[in-house]
Specification:
The complex is a heterotrimer of chains A (477), B (101) and C (379). Chain A is built from 17 helices and 23 strands. Chain A is an alpha/beta fold and 477 residues long. In chain A, strands 1, 2, 3, 4, 5, 6 and 20 form a seven-stranded mixed β-sheet that branches. With 101 residues, chain B is mainly β. Chain B has one domain: Ubiquitin-like (UB roll). Chain B is built from one helix and eight strands; from the N terminus they run βββαβββββ. In chain B, the strands form two sheets. Chain B has a five-stranded mixed β-sheet, with helices on one face. In chain B, strands 4-5 form a two-stranded antiparallel sheet. In chain B, a hairpin with a 2-residue loop joins strand 6 and strand 7. Chain B is globular. In chain B, 45% of the residues are buried. In chain C, a hairpin with a 2-residue loop joins strand 10 and strand 11. The chains are: A alpha/beta (477), B mainly beta (101), C alpha+beta (379). At the A-B interface, strand 8, helix 3 and strand 9 of A face strand 1, helix 1 and strand 5 of B. Strand 9 of chain A pairs antiparallel with strand 1 of chain B, so a sheet runs across the interface.
């Protein structure tokens, strides 16, 4: 039976670096990603995007092209345009990784270890009207910029909190794209809560970068702070945004509203694979429990990068390297010829995580935005409102799985990615329990929707190693 | 609603709801649809409300369209190809009956 | 917990242990007789068949070797329209219950012959056993236009139907509550002790005193039964289920393994596995289920699966229910079955009535726990 040493899921900075280091260490490696080329979300379009090979989106983004090139040079086999369905640990300790590879096709790849590097997603920011066309996330707008060089037009409003919101405003500013208003919804106590972490922040790269960001964004954009109760107005598409500042409610016209509420780990894959996860009260998110090399309590399952806890691209790359060394140690008994390199990555990780605690506190979302009013849709797929969820809790549903059974929240194609955290937050508010005690909805395979035909083909393809990629693995530019 | 900052290297033709559109070669389908003026791409299953691209990275499942006959595909994860046929406005897709007579 | 002091020192007349469809059907029926009912349930994480079941109200093929069970299932199916109407009226919830008949599809002539012979043998054993009809490929195609060419025929039973199982679960909660039943989650039971006028039930939620106690805890009944002198060696049997995205309506009738819900999703479930308490999913089993579904309805190949899950059936050694009243602990009852949805109608009426009155009618004697006296406890 053909068996790989390692399957890596995700082609962002963590997955790419893990692939490079694991291949250097002599492992047989396959990398799987949903995208069409290396980069993940943060380095999207590094090879063939609208700004590939330029410095127009900043030096951090340009680092993606270097890493993508290193990955291409590593010779690691890659399945792009492929979706992981399920990771199962077999009785012999190896993993079966079910992957949908194309039209009607799927394969099961056997590997001795798995590194999940599935990255982050934006924290849901459920407001009234957020399902209207014209309302998107800031991340979506940034992806359109990176991949296709496309920007919003007409009255544009940014709303929410988090570094990405300001980064996007700064990138737009640098490209001469007008943003009408930035509504900053960070709570008034955030500065006070962030202050104890200021020392770490001042020695971080964010301090320098952050000030630059703010300067650029401030210059081009009207920024309104202390904003609450943002809602999107429109009939079949967005026409205006309302918000409250102090006692005053205002309505401003908008064709595009870009929401952002920070980023959280994508946990569907690792949760469904059986890894233990824990609530991080500072980051308001569930995170997998990992050791220093990223290994979970499922032996052989490693997690690197933002899917293990938000640390940004540079931390992700360092964690990718450390996870690869962890796999090498597990399979070969040594982490390569020179553990000096591992120590260097560990130092780089520590440096790149500096300042995160300050940012987490500074940009923490408001409670009133985490737990929206009754009329707001929380589960976009099944169109379940916050009021529906509160009613279920009041009727005795004490946790997210029972709430799901009562309301269908979390049962749609997004598999609770858009409603899971809000559901837990509402249950916490209603019961007075901590989200850690409540837990998340059970996440199961398929990790993303796949066709019945793809699932059916898992039996024919079982134990077979794919020999051809479903799509071109070379840049098309 | 959206505009292009960078001129594309080339163009391809896709059909959207039966009408031909010239779009940038290799562009993300959801981007192409927004640039072509399609803000709402489908209707929600339960209430039948308009939905359009939201997360842009394959997690929200709101940009679902029919691509070359395959229903409910995520437009944000697909690049346009010459001759691609796209259908918008679906609420509950009907599966094509492939049963031979 | 608010005590009800007027009731002889007990907190309630009846404590129902188990908040699934079985427990809730009984609780609703008991509350309807005027009794004060408390439902003791586990927490959010539980082996809860009611959250994972298929939603069939089904008699076809039930009790092939046991006419008592066949009759019992048919009685419930016949009572279901009234039961559904009542629950809908009480709770203002649409259960989307339909009873237009159900089908089993055969992919080989042998399979079809065997099934027809089994059903005929059962039918010939007496009154009150389900009718059925053998259909050839053309007959199947008339009822199910989407059926594939691999299907050689099938059987149709007019008593079969289906219901939105989660809405039933939700509505039974609401129906019981509307009659004053108290629902207590996070109340896993650790001990049941006899008192002069009832039972003391202790556990995660403290102590509660009840005049009668009904064990309807699914797989938990194996552990709880001996506390009241009832041996109920139930074991888990896993079934894996796939559900698709919501699709335009194309299936007018449910099949035993494939049905389209009122909301549009297609449920596909076709496995019976002895894997203990593992309620996970396996790619090879799901692949087999998916492949067979495509042979029956080729158009399903392109449907997208949005979820899959494993659910644990509550199985007795012979597969039939246990209805038992304790000899050693008068006032204690045990109800266990793996068809909580089909049998909900008789649970809410007959069984609840018998527990309320204490008169154990002959309908239930074939299902006494004594038949498993020689079977060791699982685990």
């Amino acid at each position: 039976m053909t068996r790989l040493d390692l399957v890596i899921v995700g082609a962002g900075p963590a997955g790419l670096r893990a692939a490079v280091e694991a291949a250097t260490g002599g492992l047989s490696v396959m990398l799987v990603d949903e995208g069409r080329e290396p980069g993940g979300q943060i380095y999207r379009g590094s090879e063939s995007g609208a700004f590939a090979g330029t410095a127009k989106l900043g030096s951090d983004y340009a680092a993606g092209a270097v890493l993508a090139a290193a990955f291409r040079a590593s010779g690691v086999e890659a399945l792009f345009g492929a979706t992981v369905i399920q990771i199962e640990r077999e009785a012999d300790g190896s993993f079966s990784v079910s992957v949908a590879t194309g039209h009607d096709k799927a394969v099961v790849v056997r590997a001795r270890a798995v590194i999940a590097a599935t990255g982050a997603q934006e924290r849901p920011f459920p407001i009234d009207g957020w399902t209207l066309p014209g309302v998107m996330t800031a991340g979506a707008a940034q992806t359109m910029l990176k991949a296709d060089g496309v920007v919003p037009d007409g009255p544009v409003v940014l709303a929410g909190t988090g570094p990405l919101l300001y980064l996007l405003a700064a990138q737009y500013g640098a490209l001469g794209v007008a943003i009408d208003t930035l509504l900053d919804t960070a709570g008034p106590g955030n500065w006070r809560r962030a202050l104890p972490h200021v020392a770490g922040f001042l020695t971080s790269r964010y301090a320098f970068k952050g000030l630059g960001l703010l300067g650029k964004a401030l210059a081009a954009t009207r920024i309104i702070r202390g904003v609450e109760a943002v809602s999107a107005i429109g009939d079949t598409r967005l026409s205006a945004v309302t918000y409250r500042k102090g006692a005053t409610e205002r309505t401003i016209p908008a064709h595009v509203l870009l929401l952002h509420h920070g980023v959280v780990p994508q946990i569907n894959l690792t949760w469904s694979a059986g890894a233990q996860h824990r609530w991080n009260a500072a980051r308001l998110a569930f995170e997998p429990v990992r050791d220093a090399s990223g290994q979970t309590d499922v032996p052989g399952l490693f997690i690197a990068g933002d899917s293990g806890g938000i640390g940004g691209a540079q931390a992700a790359e360092a964690e990718g390297a450390l996870a690869a060394f962890g796999v090498l140690r597990m399979l070969r008994g040594t982490a390569g010829d020179d553990d000096r390199i591992e120590r260097q990555w560990r130092r780089r990780l520590a440096v790149s995580l500096r300042g995160r605690a300050f940012l987490d506190a500074l940009y923490a979302p408001r409670q009133s935005h985490l737990c929206p009013p009754d009329e707001v849709i929380v589960c976009r797929c099944e169109e379940v409102t916050a009021g529906d969820i509160r009613k279920a809790v009041r009727r005795g549903a004490m946790g997210p799985n029972q709430v799901k059974a009562f309301t269908r929240a979390g049962m749609g194609p997004c598999q609770s990615r858009m409603c899971g955290l809000t559901t837990v937050a509402i249950i916490a508010e209603e019961t007075g329990l901590s989200p850690g005690d409540i837990g998340h909805m059970r996440l199961r395979a398929p990790v993303k929707p796949v066709t019945v035909a793809q699932i059916a083909s898992l039996s024919e393809a079982d134990e077979r190693r794919p020999t051809e990629s479903p799509s071109a693995t070379r840049p098309c530019k | 609603m959206f505009r292009r900052l960078v001129e594309p290297a080339g163009h391809v033709t896709v059909t959207i709801d039966g009408r031909p559109f010239s779009v940038a070669a290799g562009e993300t389908l959801s981007t192409a649809l927004l640039l072509a003026g399609f803000a709402g791409l489908r209707r929600s299953a339960r209430l039948g409300r308009e939905r359009g691209p939201f997360c842009g990275m394959g997690v929200c499942f709101d940009c679902l369209v029919t691509i070359d006959g395959a229903a409910n595909r995520q437009a944000c994860l697909v690049r346009v190809r010459d001759g691609m046929a796209v259908q918008t406005g679906t609420r509950l897709p009907a599966l094509a009956d492939t049963v031979p007579e | 917990m608010s005590p009800a002091p007027e009731r002889s020192g007990n907190d309630c007349d009846v404590a129902v242990i188990g908040g699934g469809v079985v427990g809730l059907s009984l609780a609703y029926g008991l509350a309807k007789t005027g009794l004060a009912v408390t439902i003791l349930d586990e927490g959010d994480i539980a082996h809860r068949a009611s959250r994972g079941n298929f939603g069939l109200v089904w008699v076809q093929g039930k009790g092939l070797d046991n006419p008592d069970y066949a009759r019992w299932s048919l009685a419930s199916a016949r009572a279901w329209p009234f039961f559904a109407a009542e629950i809908e009226a009480v709770t203002d919830t649409a259960l989307s219950y339909e009873q237009r008949g159900g089908l089993m599809a055969s992919l080989t002539e042998d399979d079809l012959d065997t099934r027809c012979n089994d059903l005929r043998r059962l039918h010939n054993r007496g009154r009150d056993c389900a009718d059925f009809e053998r259909l050839d490929a053309g007959g199947m195609k008339r009822l199910l236009p989407a059926i594939g060419p691999d299907v050689v025929g099938g059987t149709f039973c007019p008593h079969d139907g289906h219901v939105n199982a989660l809405r039933l679960f939700n509505a039974l909660h609401a129906a019981a509550a509307s009659l004053g039943a108290i629902y207590r989650p996070n109340a896993t039971v650790e001990a049941i002790d006899r008192l002069p006028d009832g039972f003391s039930i202790t556990g995660a939620a403290g102590e509660i005193r009840a005049g009668k106690v009904v064990l309807a805890a699914g797989l938990g009944n194996a552990r709880l039964g001996p506390m009241v002198g009832i041996h109920a060696p139930v074991r888990p049997q896993r079934g894996q289920i796939l559900v698709t995205e919501k699709l335009a309506h194309f299936l007018d009738y449910p099949l035993g393994t494939i049905r389209q819900t009122d909301e549009g999703g297609v449920m596909i479930g076709d496995s019976k596995e002895e894997v203990g308490f593992d309620n996970g999913t396996r790619h090879d089993v799901l692949a087999g289920i998916a492949a067979k579904a495509i042979r029956i309805f080729p158009l399903l190949a392109q449907a997208q699966v949005v979820r899959s899950w494993g659910a644990l059936r509550v199985m007795t050694p012979d597969g039939y229910p246990i209805y038992e009243r304790s000899v050693t602990h008068p006032g204690a009852y045990l109800v266990t079955c793996h068809s909580g949805v089909t049998l909900a109608a008789v649970h809410a009426s007959h069984v609840a009535g018998m527990i309320a009155s204490g008169d154990w009618l002959p309908d239930l004697t074939p299902f006494a726990a004594g038949r498993f006296a020689d079977v060791p406890s699982p685990g």
